[in-house]
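Quick one, T. Sequence first:
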Amino acid sequence: MVLEKVIKIVAEHLEMDESEITAETTLADLGVDSLDTVEILMEMEDEFGITIDPGDVHVEKVGELADYIASILDK
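Structure tokens:
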């Protein structure tokens, strides 16, 4: 469930089709830069009702981002 929402948010932000993004897709493959990262994290905060410290996020793959968010939700 978290992964699907993360993929949807990333796809919408990058104006891509969700089918182009999987858990194994890297943010670099998607051309995500530092500004995109901050904006995507802000969108994740709004969607999931959480607070994310961008300095704590060290992920390369979309699936890792979903796992990170799931770990916050489990707290």
